[in-house]
């Protein structure tokens, strides 16, 4: 199994490097749980400054509304009620939220701690047909900045990884702001970084675009941040309608 490691100055640069690395070196093998095949490798990508501009990749399936809704789902749990209704088995926010206060208190207690870890996997995943992909998130204050280390057991490289990384980097910044320190590096580790067969053409298209020399990013500040803010009322209305469903 290939073990790949890439870095980038910004979040999109690191993510794009991971796409190119996976395209160059991967195994193609069956994925029986989903009755398909996949390209796969173990991949770690590191963004030295996840808040650096341009912050948004053009290579993900979504728009400003989708990215803002996902950010709110991860950080604020706007759809956690779907778990209570039995419609979803879990949300990442529901798995993490009861550990947020402890993360803050532990990092304040000892800024040099190695114990500030959010555990996402739980015993329900042993019996689940859809266990959580995100396993853990660790925070370390080093050199006066808050660094974030994320572990996924499994991560869809073309349809999920950038949105996952963006939301988790936003959570990192929230903690950093609350602790009064800057955000440091963001490290995204996927033991199975994969592309399903149905998305191989999309994957190849990503690579062609990256190699073309054309624009592959958008600015966040003064661009997508405004579009994401504009989407908030629509998202709030969507959440309200979802809550009212029987």
What would you say this structure looks like, in words?
The chain has 246 residues and is of the alpha/beta class. It has one domain: Thymidylate Synthase, Chain A, CATH 3.30.572. 43% of the residues lie in helices and 26% in strands. It has 10 helices and 10 strands. It has helices at 11-24, 64-76, 81-84, 92-96, 100-109, 124-127, 161-179, 200-212, 220-230, 232-244, and strands at residues 3-8, 27-31, 36-47, 56-57, 117-119, 134-142, 145-152, 155-156, 183-196, 217-218. The strands form 2 sheets. Strands 1, 2, 3, 5, 6, 7, 8 and 9 form an 8-stranded mixed sheet that branches. It has a two-stranded antiparallel sheet with strand order 4-10. Helix 2 (64-76) crosses helix 9.
Number of strands: 10
Shape: globular
Q: Would you list the SSEs in sequence order as H and E? A: EHEEEHHHHEHEEEHEHEHH
Poorly predicted runs: none
What's the CATH class label? Answer: Alpha Beta
Look at the structure and give the mean pLDDT: 96
How much helical structure, as a percent, in the residues? 40-55%
The CATH topology label is Thymidylate Synthase, Chain A
CATH superfamily: Thymidylate synthase/dCMP hydroxymethylase domain
SS strand fraction = 25-35%
Distance between the terminal alpha carbons, to the nearest Å?
46 Å
The value of Rg in angstroms is 18 Å
């Amino acid at each position: 199994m290939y073990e790949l490691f890439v870095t980038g100055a910004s979040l999109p640069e690191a993510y794009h490097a991971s796409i190119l690395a996976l395209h160059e070196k991967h195994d193609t093998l069956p994925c029986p749980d989903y009755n398909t095949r996949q390209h796969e490798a173990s991949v770690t990508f590191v963004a030295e400054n996840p808040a650096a501009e341009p912050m948004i990749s053009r290579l993900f399936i979504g728009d400003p509304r989708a990215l803002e809704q996902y950010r709110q789902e991860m950080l604020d749990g706007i759809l956690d009620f779907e778990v209570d209704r039995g419609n979803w088995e879990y949300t990442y926010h529901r798995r993490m939220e009861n550990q947020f206060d402890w993360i803050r208190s532990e990092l304040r207690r000892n800024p040099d701690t190695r114990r500030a870890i959010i555990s996402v996997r739980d015993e329900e995943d042993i019996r689940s047909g859809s266990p959580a992909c995100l396993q853990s998130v660790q925070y370390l204050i080093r050199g006066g900045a808050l660094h974030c280390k994320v572990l996924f057991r499994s991560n869809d490289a073309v349809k999920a990884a950038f949105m996952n990384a963006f939301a988790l980097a936003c959570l990192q910044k929230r903690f950093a702001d609350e602790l009064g320190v800057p955000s440091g590096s963001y490290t995204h580790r996927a033991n199975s970084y994969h592309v399903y067969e149905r998305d191989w053409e999309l994957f190849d298209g990503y690579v062609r675009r990256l190699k073309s020399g054309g624009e592959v990013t958008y600015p966040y500040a003064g661009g997508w941040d405004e579009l994401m803010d504009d989407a908030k009322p629509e998202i709030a209305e969507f959440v309200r309608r979802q809550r009212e469903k029987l």
